Request: fold
Amino acid sequence: MRRVKDHYDVLIAGSGVAGLHAALQFPPQVKVLVLCKKELLLSNSALAQGGVAAVVDKEHDTCQLHIKDTMIAGGNQNNPDALEVLVNEGAENVLNLLDIGVDFDRDETGGLQLTLEGGHSRRRILHHKDSTGREMMEKLILAVKAKSNVDIEENCMLADLKQVENGFLAYVLGDGHCTQVTANYCILATGGIGRVYQYTTNSAIATGDGIALAHRMGAKITDLHLVQFHPTAFAAKQNRERFLISESVRGEGAVLLNNEGKRFMDRYDERLELAPRDVVSRSIMKEARRVGSNNFYLDISFQGADYLKNRFPTIYGRCLEEGVDITKDWIPVFPCQHYLMGGIHVDLDSQSSIDRLYACGECSHTGVHGNNRLASNSLLEALVFSRRAARHILNRMASEPHPILSKGDDLPLDGMPLPSGLRTQVRDIMQSAHFVVPNPVAAREGMKRVKKILAMLESSHYAVTPDFIETKNITTVAMIILEEVNKP
Ligand SMILES: Cc1cc2nc3c(=O)[nH]c(=O)nc-3n(C[C@H](O)[C@H](O)[C@H](O)COP(=O)(O)OP(=O)(O)OC[C@H]3O[C@@H](n4cnc5c(N)ncnc54)[C@H](O)[C@@H]3O)c2cc1C
Reply:
């Protein structure tokens, strides 16, 4: 917090691929602050394994095919205009990453190695082994840190945001202090909502902060009930954060087995293990009911050990830590929360319904994914729409005078401690009300309970701490989802 100034042209909340890629676009005369709630490599972006989709092989692939595949996965509920932007601008955004040193895997001729994933009709996934997100993040961090106009602050949380004349007043929590910062524009890039659920593949930062903040400011939030559940997360019961066994493992031939060690996907879908995520997740839940067991496995052990260790080094290493050798053993898997399709409603320039407030990445809702995201399209969305946000802001800045902004009251850092167990209550409600197969009765009862918890958090004088803010945000997100689900 030592370096934080009183005023910036642009405040970016979030330092995943969306936030950092936005920051990278601003020229030296534009002063930018990037806030990162925890450490820079703690984000969903850094966890992305499979890769990023883009039509770079113009000989064998077309934008029309990528659009078609995305529409099929999204149940034709995608926003066609946003999808065109995503796909048409995708390749340029992804290839620009080569300039900052992102090391996508190459084939024997030195060309980019493109892989296939479930739902894609062509090889169009660029990847760096099975740690694509981390590779992108490491290079983006270096590139943004080299920019003298950008301050990046780790362990600094955007706790509250107020609209003031010509911009925003932000309350930033860090080192036990609260600092007020003004900015003419704000980009929310705070990521997903995984921590609203008991089990998720998401990192600890995914508490829906930007969405809850935007909602409190009156911004339009859309389709928050569109939550994606990944069918094959490592089933380690003791951890909230579940390690993902990526689609590409099934892409390389892994089969799904029930508690009796039998394949079962042919009962539910002719595409078998490579059916879309929602179909595989629902099939697992149906099979669980049929056989009366939640024990499911992926088997890829028939592939050579050398091949597996080289193709999936991260998955191999992580499973080994859990006592599972994927070259010999079946991998225990079960569906869990993975991704949010809905979010802060934005237009094609990533503008929210509030003037000067932008959103991009997983916290935003461009509509590109429709009802269900196609694998490897979300890093692409984060890249394309973060650049659009930055460019739109730059255009506006050129035609506006520089405003002077004011300060507000401080946040109450002293107050009652937060009662324990509130987050657990909310997570239990969401797990039973709105998991793979929604439960309308649990959703109705859950909404009443969630509203009570939120009313208590808002009316009592709790000390404003990161824990308090996150608990309030998780509860707000749960409430919006349950309100949408319960709408007649
Ligand atoms: C295990 C896993 C594997 C995945 N694999 C793929 C894949 O192969 N391909 C693909 O396309 N997508 C994949 N995804 C999805 C993709 O990684 C994410 O959707 C995308 O990276 C989101 O980027 P983001 O920048 O919006 O959010 P994040 O990367 O999650 O970043 C959010 C940032 O916001 C910050 N933040 C949050 N709240 C606050 C606050 N209040 N104040 C300040 N900062 C805050 C956090 O600290 C963090 O820096 C995967 C996701 C997971 C979880």
